[in-house]
Amino acid sequence: MNLPTSIYVFRWFVRDTFRQANAARLSWLMLVFSGIFILICLSVGVRGEAPLERNGERADFLPADDPLAAAVKSSNTGVVVVGGELTVFFGLIRVPLGRDAAESVHFLELLLAGFVADTLGIFLALIWTGGFFSSFLDPCSASVLLVKPVPRGLILVGKYVGVLAFVAAQVVIFVLGTWLALGLKTGCWRFEYLLCIPIFIVHFATFFAVSSFLAVRARSSIVCVLGSLAFWLICWGVNLSRHSVRVASEADAPSASVRVLAEAGYWMLPKPSDLSIVLFDALDAGRSFHRADVFRSLDRLSAFHPTLSLATSLLFALVALCASARHFAVQDY
Question: How far apart are CA 210 and CA 177, in angstroms?
């Protein structure tokens, strides 16, 4: 199998995945999901009385509803009193914010990236794409593909790349659409927000590899969806448990065997919590949200390694995908 043929196979599966998504109305469902949040962003308005950052340095400030705000405003202390306001649905909903306009937009982008895309988005993407592999591996469908002179492993990887390309396209629509909508409405453009596109794709690619493995083994959409979501939650638990064990004080330190098991599970499995913190740092979320105590402790201990977390998570996805391809290669159809 030469390189041009392999590229042709991948291109064919990408087109076939988009065709399958259109036939199942999944493309429209995901576009409606993105469209709702783009429309919400187009309805947003922000107001801030003073900037919180001057000459690259953040100013001392108080929100307008603070009991000391009136006294500070009438004095000459240099402390800024901010009475920002966020409006949604063209003023129907008004939310007072103790921040300026730029910070208000940043806060809203963090909600979109951290809660809508990184949490709800991963959850829905795994559910919506759970049926891709199971229908693809149905004997009636697979037999047509297997008569072609293409290695089975390449067929499975091609389908994986096709689904990944489809999800990536939807992520770009959501992120770029909400970013443009907020920028056009508020005049605040934060290019860091676009970094959630590659981080989300890495996050999804890791756990969709598990979904593909379950599909090859069980050929069931329900198993793919429930299994990948359950595995996602397990990885969250292992990820956070390892960090808690790592930062435990000497008085509360667990036994050596527990520490070894926690470290082994952490480095062997994907790390969704770490990926969320990578997103947290990439978007400079510390300006609006406090970093979790456990991660601050990890930083002090130099025990958090985001590059290694990303690399080992992707390595797990590669191993799962190779195991899927190997099993698919020996299955009877």
Answer: 29
31 in a structural domain: yes
Strands of 93-97's sheet in order across: 45-47, 84-88, 93-97
**Number of domains composing the chain:** 1
Q: Please, which residues bridge with residue 45 across strands?
A: 87
Residues 6+ apart with CB under 8 A from 285: 110, 114, 279
Query: Can you give the pLDDT of all 333 residues of the chain as single tens digits?
Result: 566 777 777 788 888 888 888 888 888 999 999 999 999 999 988 765 545 454 444 444 434 444 444 444 445 555 455 556 777 877 777 766 656 677 778 888 988 998 898 889 999 999 989 888 877 776 666 544 554 567 778 888 888 999 999 999 999 999 999 999 999 988 888 899 999 999 999 999 999 999 999 988 888 889 999 999 999 999 999 999 999 888 886 557 777 888 889 999 999 999 999 999 999 888 988 777 777 788 888 888 888 889 999 999 999 999 999 999 888 877 765
Dihedral sign for Cα 129, 133, 135, 141, please.
positive
What is the 3-class SS of 10-40, one letter each residue?
HHHHHHHHHHHHHHCCHHHHHHHHHHHHHHH
Asked whether residue 93 is assigned to any structural domain, the reply reads: no
Q: Are strands 80-82 and 61-63 parallel, antiparallel or unpaired?
A: parallel
Contacts of 320 (CB under 8 A, 6+ apart): 209, 210, 212, 213
Is residue 216, in this structure, part of any structural domain at all? yes
Sign of CA dihedral 93, 96, 101, 105: negative
Look at residue 314 and tell me if it is in a domain. Answer: yes
**Residue ranges making up the domain that contains 146:** 3-44+100-330
* Helix 306-330 / helix 152-186 crossing angle, nearest 10 deg: 140
